[in-house]
Amino acid sequence: MERIKGLILTDGARIGIIGGGPAGSFFSIFASKLARDIGKALDFTIYERKTFANHGASGCNMCAGVISESLVQSLALEGINLPSSVVRWGIESYFFHTQNGSVQIKSSRLQQRGIATVFRGGGPAGSLEKDVQSFDGFLLQKAIDCGTQVKHVIVDEIRLDGGKPGLYSGGRILQDCDLLVGAFGVKASTSKMCEKLGTGYKIPPTIKATQSEIELGRDWVASRFGHSIHIFLLRIPGIKFISIIPKGDYITISALGKEPGVNHIKTFLDHPVMKKMLPSGFKIPERFCHCFPKINVGAARKPFANRLVFVGDAGSSRLYKDGIGSAYITSKAAAYTALLHGVGEEDFRGYYLPVCKTLNRDNLFGRFLFSANDFISIIPPVSRCYFKVIQLEQDGLQRNTPYGDVLWDMFTGSRFYKDIFVRALSPWLTMHLLSVMIASFFKKVFFPHTRK
Ligand SMILES: Cc1cc2nc3c(=O)[nH]c(=O)nc-3n(C[C@H](O)[C@H](O)[C@H](O)COP(=O)(O)OP(=O)(O)OC[C@H]3O[C@@H](n4cnc5c(N)ncnc54)[C@H](O)[C@@H]3O)c2cc1C
Questions:
Q1: Co-location of 348 and 200 in the same domain
Q2: What is the CA radius of gyration of the chain?
Q3: CA separation (Å) from 261 to 237, 238, 330?
Q4: What does the DSSP assignment read for 203-237?
Q5: CB under 8 Å to 125, separation ≥6 — which residues?
C-alpha cells in the first residue's frame, strides 16, 4: 500500500469496525463523542457476529471478567457507570493460596469493592439466573446510544483494491470504509484474513487458557470466597496459575498454562487446598460450562496502515492482566489519532504507535515479574518466607505494606509493570526478604522444634 499524507475523515466519512467486543465499542464511543465535539458528521457501523444474549460460549467473549479498579474509575469519568445488572460481584481483596497456606491482601488505595466481576455474555451454559446483563452487550448498547449502527453479521472478506478497504459477507459488499478498525480480538480467523492483506500486519502471539463456570450457590460463594479473588500457586504441572473469581451463584475458574485442559481443572478441584473451599461431598459435575480461549501475550506487528488500524487484543494488550483496560487505552488512542490527526499510515505511526509501544515495553517488565513470581512459588523455602513477610505486613505488624502492594498491583493490573518492577527491586525490600530467609534458615537448623 502506498504511503499517503493528509488522509482525513471529512463529513459523511464511513467507519467500519469489525468486532463489537470492548475495543470496538470503546472506539466508536470515543470517536463518535469526539466527532460531535469537533462538529464532524461521521457514520459508524460495528459488525459483530454475536448478540451477547445467549448463555454459554456462543454468546460470550470468554474471559475471567474482572474489571480492574483503574478501568472502573476511568469508565466512571467517561460517564459509563456499570449497573448492578452487569456487576456480578464487587471485589475488595485478593487471597493467595500456596501449598504452605493462604494470605489475604487488601489495598488501602482501593475504594470500597472498587473492582467489578462481570459475565461477558448472557451467563454460563445451563444457568437459570435471569437478571444477568452481559458486559459486552452493555458497552455495545452505549455505542448504539452514541449513534453507532450495529449489524450482527460475520465479515468474511476484506478487499483493499480501491484504496478504501471494502468489507464483505457471503460475497456481498457490506460497505467501503474511509477507516477500517480491526477490533476482532485474537480468537477469530479474522486475524488471518487481515494478515493476508499485505500491509505488514501480524497478529499478536497467544497462549491457551481455560475457563470454567462452576455453580455453588450464592450463599456458599459468599461465605467461602467472600468479596475476594483467589489466586492459587499450587505447582500443578502445566499450570502457571489459577484464579477463582466469584460471581453470584457461580465461581469462574480461569487457568493459564502451557495447554490447560478440563483434566487440569478436575485435578485442581480435587487438590486438598481447593477441596477445603468446596461443599463437603462436592462432586465435579459431569458437564459444566467451559471454554479454551486464547489470551494475547504480546504485540501485533504494524497494527496500522492507510485507512486501517487494529485495536484491543488485535493490537496491543497488557500481559495477563486488564485486557479490557488495554482495549480502552488503545481504542481511545486510535480514535483520537483518526479524528484529530488523520487516518494515514504516518498519522497512526506518529500518534497511535507510541501508545502501543508503551504497553509493549511495559510487558517486558511484566514478563520478568511473573517469572520471578513463578520462581518464588516453586521453591518452598522461598515461597514460605515471602508469604510469611506478606502475612506479617497484612496483620498490621509493619507500618507499610510494600510486598503486598507489589502482589496486589501485579495481579489486579492496576499499575504499570515498570512501576511495580522498580518497587519490587528496591534494595530495602530485597535485603529485608533475604534477612527473613536467613533468619528462618538458622531457626530451622538450630531450633527445629520451635513453632513457625
Ligand atoms: C482466560 C482469559 C481470561 C481473561 N481475563 C480477563 C479479565 O479478567 N479482565 C480483563 O480485563 N481481561 C481479561 N482477559 C482479556 C480480555 O478478554 C481481552 O483483552 C478483551 O476481551 C479484548 O477485547 P477486544 O474487544 O479487543 O476483543 P474481544 O473481546 O475478543 O472481541 C472481539 C469481537 O470481535 C468479534 N469478531 C471477530 N471477528 C469477527 C468477524 N469477522 N465478523 C464479526 N465479528 C467478529 C467477536 O465475536 C468478538 O465479539 C482474559 C482473557 C482470557 C483468554
A1: yes
A2: 23
A3: 12, 10, 31
A4: PPPEEEEEEEEEE--HHHIIIIITTEEEEEE---T
A5: 55, 56, 57, 213, 289
Query: E-assigned strands of 24-92?
Result: 43-47, 66-67, 87-91
Summarised one tens digit per residue, pLDDT across range 269-318 is: 999 999 999 999 898 888 889 999 999 998 999 999 999 999 999 999 99
Q: Which of 63, 206, 321 to mutate to test the pocket of ligand 1 (most atoms within 8 A of CB)?
A: 63
Is position 373 within any domain?
no
Query: Which among 164, 143, 162 has a CA at the least distance from the CA of 307?
Result: 164
72 CB near ligand 1 (under 6 Å): no
**Does residue 343 sit in the same domain as residue 434?**
no
Structural domain count of the chain: 3
Range of the domain at 413: 379-446
Q: Which residue has the cell 460497505?
A: 175
CA dist 225 and 102 (Å) reads: 13
Question: What would the pLDDT profile of 8-17 be if each residue is shown by its tens digit?
Answer: 999 999 999 9
Cell numbers linked to 378: 516453586
Ligand 1 in reach of 71 Cβ (< 6 A)? no
Taking the centre of ligand 1 as the mean of its atom positions, its distance from the CA of residue 355, in whole angstroms, is: 20
Q: What does the block give as the cell for 339?
A: 479524528
* Binding site membership of 327 for ligand 1 (Cβ less than 6 Å): yes
Residue nearest ligand 1's atom 50 by CA = 63
Q: Which three-class secondary structure state does DSSP give residue 262?
A: helix
Considering the domain architecture, whether residues 143 and 75 belong to the same structural domain is answered as: yes
Residue among 202, 186, 190, 189 nearest 314 (CA): 186
Between CA 44 and CA 27 the distance in angstroms is 10
- Per DSSP, the three-state class of 170 is coil
